[in-house]
Structure formats: structure tokens, C-alpha cells
Amino acid sequence: MPLPRFLRTDLRHPAVLRGLIALVAVVLAGWLQWGGGTRPTSAVDEWLRDSFIQLRASAVPEQRILVIDIDESSVANIPWPWPRARIADLVELALADGARAVALDILMEKPADADGDMRLAMLAGHGPVVLAQMFDYLHADAPLGSGHLVGGAPAPAAGNALPALGYLANHAGLAQSRHAGNIGVLPDADGALRRLPVFTSYRGRVYPTLSLALLQCCGDATDNLPLRAVERVPFARDWAAYDVVKAVDLLSGNMPEGMARGRLVLIGSSSLSIGDRIATPLGASSAGLLVHASMLTSLLDRQQGLAPAALPGKSIAFAFVLAVVLLTAYTLPRMSAASNALLLGASALLWLAIAWLLAPHDPDFAPAAPLLCCLYLLAVAVPFQWELAQRRSRQLLGTLRQYVAGEVVDELLRSDLKDPLAPRRLEVTTLVADMQGYTSQVEALSLEEASRLTTQFLECLTQPVLAQRGTLDKYTGDGLVAFWGAPLPNPDHADLALDAAARILREVAQFSSQREASGLPPLRVRIGIESGVAMAGDYGTAARSIYTAVGDSVNTAARLEQAARDYPHDVIVGEGTAALARRHRLLLLGERQLRGKGRPTRIYTLEQGA
What is residue 165's DSSP assignment? Predict the structure, then answer.
């Protein structure tokens, strides 16, 4: 049973291969955006996003947040670990200055000075204070479990939370705290922290991250915020954008009065000696406090409608790749490999600009995916099309050299013609030459002798044609058809054809003399020449084609060649060629009614010595 036509498609056909290359690019773009799992572009995706963050991070002051930093100078003044009374002092001073709420980015697993612990317990149990607790997502074999977890809400049936394997919490003396926030983190494979677990599930309860717990502590509505279990931290503000008060300055009364009024306060440490440092897009060693401050800024922006509007980054990236694929499908066969490479390079640069604008609006799309698709097209589609062009050029040259003189081929290569063999309407001069009495010449010869005579005679005809930059149309057994003016237009086509005819006469006369000297009969050539408009081009089918000229002047040249048998002249020239000849003197022979012509045609011949 024969296969359906669509299944019989030759997969090696260039159009099919181009379609497959384009299809792979489109499928690759879709898989990189929606395929799930670890993408092969993940490292480049994150590097690009990190670069965008560094370029975009704003230093505009963040007026809604105040950071109290236990920095190196504070630790030098009061050696770490600090008495809990000092930490309680920081909280009380911030609240006394008008802070809306205070969050501690400090874990207190074990009791310390009783007075300090009691004051912190009172503040956390009755005031707008959020303590820290940490969940562990990695140590499955030996899960952590120290201290007393507080806060949390019953886990809903449809869990929107990251499961934790263990925890570290504050000591039992702080178990009556009303609010606690998770300071556990989940760095990426390269060690950089780009995302935070906003909701963590552990033993049937869900716990918020520190920044979200701080908003909830203030009574702010957070249920309407479209938060996922793990959120990308936008790092929209640089560290310099946050008002930072050194802890030692606050304790010594050097903080300006009212600086905390109406603000959310984060208390933590940037000190290297305490070790709360982590790699982020903003730096290889950033204070963990900055991560929570950045997340808090993001939540406040969302709450106040200041966050970038959500956009379908994946769909935009896919549409961009599709547009590039369609564009290159058009340009690849029409432009040079270098131009297409530049086009793909420009497309990649354009995408980088789009991705830079799009990154804050979609935390999940793969910004490197379109770049990889452009690279794929550059590495596969451009060389493939270049090879097709080279193959076609070789085929074109091979075809041309069968018909056209070498210098004409070189001129064609230097010309701007996209397809020099495509049929075009041109003014040409056609020369038709034939051996008179060919049958009588070869009837007494052996097959080998007849073949040799034919080859030698055709050599006498061919060399003058090519020497005068003519295009060989075809051999007609014992003769040929040639024309001038195609594939490259030439204003001297009539004179060049007459030059060739004169040389053919000399070549045949010399060859005939050699034969007569050997006792063989003489040879005579009949030549018809006419000029006029014709359609010249590569005609035929996919199986076989020929470069030829078609038109009335071509037919007239053939009729003139046949008419030469009735004249003592070897060359018969039509009136079209006579009107265009500039370098030759022609002798008018009169008028003759040619077959297929409605009126008599004036005919000429070359004057002797012309």
C-alpha cells in the first residue's frame, strides 16, 4: 500500500530541512520556558537577572523601613554575644521613638541574663515585636529540632508552603511570644540567595517569613497579596537606600529623635565576626539583614500598589523567538551569511533590552532562552543556508560554464544579479550554424570517423562563439545555436555575433583545406544571424533544464541558416542585426519570404574583407 503524499516528503529537501531547523528553535524556546525542572540555561538566567538587579538597584531612600545594625563598631564597643538586656534596650528605644513594629533578625536558642530575657518576653508577648526562628530544608538525615516554635497557622488542605525538615527556635522563656518570623534561607546551587521561603509548613502548621510576620504584627492585611510559597527577592533597593542606625549609636542616645517614627524596624547584624553574611545578586557578601529588608520593601510595594505589574514573560519570550524564527526564515535565503549573523546578533541585543525591562515584571521566565535560540540559529541555520548557497553557486557555475565564456561567468559573479539564470526579456542576437551536406559527408565514413569529423567541425564552431563572449545554447548534431546579450545584457551583441561568424568562416575554411589536402571532400558552413527581443533563461524541469533563448528572432535566425543553401554566401544576416551592427559592413541581398513570416524579410551578408 503506497504511503500518503505527505509521508513521502523527502526529508533531505532543503525546504524540509529549513522547516525542521525552525521547528527545533521554536520547540527549544517552549521547552526552556515551560519544560519544568532544571533548565540548561539556569546559570545564565540567574547571571543575567543578577546583572539586571545590579544595574537597576535604586539608591532612592527607603523611608518606610529603619535598620538597626549591630555592626563592627558596635561589636567592638560591646563584645558579642551581647547581654539580652542590650537587645531589649534596642527594641524598647525603637518603640519609644515611635516605631510601628520591630523585628529581630537574631536567634536566641538558649537563656542568658534573666532580666534581659524577661524584658524580651514581655515585649514579644505584649508589644509589636517579632522574634526570629529558623527552619531547615536540607538536613533530612539528622533534622534539627531545638527550641520552641511559636506562631504559625493551621496548614490549609491546598498547601501553599515549602515543607521544612527541621527547625531552630528561641528558648522556652520566649515561648509566649505572639509573633515570630522565619529567617531560614534556601540558597541556589551557586551559593547565592535569590529567593526566600515566604511560607513554610512544618508539622501541620504554616509559618511566615520574617518580613511578612512583621507586617502581620502591625495588623496589615496580607491575605490579598498574591504570594507563593517561595518568592524571588527583587532587591529593588541598594543597601545605601536604607536608613541604617548603628546599634551602639542608638544605645548611646546618638540616634536623631523621631527617626523610627512610623517605620518598620529591623534589628540585626552586618558584622563579619557574627557571621550573618550571604552572597546575593548585590554582592558576594551581603548582610542577611539586607535580604529581609529587601523582602520587606517588596511586600510594602505590593501592599501599596507600587510593585511592577505582572506580565507574561514566558509568552513574550516565546513570541520573540517565534518572530526571530519567522524573520530568519525570510532573510536566510535572501541575505548573505554575514548579514544574517549580524541580524541574529542584533536580535540578541534587542532581547537583552527587552529582558532587562521585563525581569521585574515576571520572576519566572528564562531570560537566556531566546539568546540560546539565537545562538542555535547562528550555529545551525546560518551555516546550513550558507552551505545551500555554496552548493547552488557551484551548480550555477557548473551550468553557466557549459554555455558561457569564462570571462562572462566572472562578470556574472561580480554583478548584483540575484538569479542570473532566471528567465528575462532581453535583446539578443542569435547565431545558428550548420554543416551543409552533412549526410553526404558521413555516409561513406565509419562510425569512428563520422564521430571525429562531427567533433572537429563543432570545435570550429564553438571556439569562436566562446572567444566572442557568446552563450552556447545547444548543439544540433552537426551544428549549434548560440546567442549574445544574455545572461548579461551587452550593447555590442550584434557585432560580437558577426565577429564570431567571421571567425567561424576562417576556422572552417582552414579545417576544410586540411581535409582537401588529405584527399577528402571540402566542407561548407551555413550561418544565420538575427537580432531581437527574446526570453532568455533557464527552462526545464527539476530533472533536466537548459539555458536557452526563446523568441521570434531566434526562429528567424534558424530560417536564415536554412536559406543560406540557396545563396553563394555562407552567412545570411537578418534586418534586425543589420540595424544594430556598428563595426561591420553588410551587403544587402534583397528580400526573401521566410517560413512563418507575414512579409518578406530583408537579408544581408558580410562584405568580403569586412
Answer: S
